[in-house]
Amino acid sequence: MISGDLKSPQDLLEVFSGIPQTKEGYLNVLSKGLFLSLKLSKSRVLGYFSNYEEKPEKPLNGLVFIISELLSDTEGYFSFEEKTAIKDFVEVNEDIESLIIKSTILRRELDEMLPLIITTNVVFRSELEEYNGKSLFKVVSKGGDVIDNLRRLKKNLEEGKVEVSEIKKIESVEEIGLDYILESVDYKQINLLKILGSLRASDFTGFVQIEGKEREIYTFFKKGEIFGIYPVSVDIFDYLMEFYGDFKASVVKINDEFVDIFAQAFIGKPIISSEGKYVSLGKLFLTLLSLKENGIAKIVSGRSNYIYIFKEGKLFSVKKEKKWEENYRVVFPKTDYVFFYKDIYIWNVNYLFYLFLLNKIRNLILKYEIPEAKEILTQRVAQFPAIYLKNGKVDAVRTLTKREERRLFNILLEVSEIIIGKVGKETFEREIEEEIKPYKDILKILNLSSDVFSEEVQEQA
Questions:
Q1: Total structural domains in the chain?
Q2: I need a surface site. Which of 57, 104, 247, 263 has the fewest CB within 10 A?
């Protein structure tokens, strides 16, 4: 594989012109959110695949338009490979030099026409049937010569026979449905528990973000149910109880189909977790797009977070600097950390609650001096790579799988049974209720209860 960065339209033109005439393979290009893969054979383009949503009437004209868009403020990556997993190429048969000349001319003429249309993502209104209700892409990519199609359109625009009726927003924030309901309200001025309860009652899908100088908290909802909380630590229950400091709260809505995968950037288990200098973002992004893989990448650069959602060949991206907003950047001068999540892990609330209870149980072990329970707890934690005991606290090293969650639950029950054998069930239940009493409201909102210790739950386990 040959690969590299693209930082200008000239870089892209040099890549096209630098392909040896004897070479056969696949040239992949990503600039911002637009992806194109060309099937090449000895300086001819035999087919293409793109994540551009509209389909052309004439494939070659559609390809010329897509390349012209890639030549607009180019920033991204390219790779050349001998094999590909893409199967649904659109057939064309064009000399690559001719293709690039046409695309370059089209780009120049589009730039000259922008004062008339503002953006290339437009739909037209006209008494002329060939333009009415058609997008710029549809007009340019119809039959005939692509340059002539654009020039006729420009002439009709200048004569007032065609006008722009709609500017289409093709943005990740729109498609993901990311929308602020409440933005950066002082934490001291709101009742967090009431807000969380109201969102749960209203079938809300999205997240609540609480941020301060030293910490950020995310609570993820899907149709009113809280399924994920971040940080993924037993301390989250104490964080949610804090009502002081310069914290600000935001409530952000997300579409149902994206909330699970978006949440993975916070509660998921990454299959890639690395310092940025060890990961080629270009290779990662182009591979995911060419394979039509689903997943999510999280890039940390300074105090900014960049989220990239890959979904069936499409790329959506948002960034968090001061707030969550649209992101077009795919090339970074420096990346601190790169994470990639493939599998969907949801419902981390239960196992964090088990860890929370395990720590409360440990308080009882110390209070009633039960060495057998202390020894078993220490042994089970030592045998369980996903959790640890440090400074008197049991916590998770990483995200737990469902099987590991069940294993943690069984440890909780095993240690509880030893304590009950020493102090009695009534004393045990009274002490546990006293331990969790300060958290009563937050546990109610999270739909959590100490009923996990009931005989019925034990039998189901």
A1: 4
A2: 57
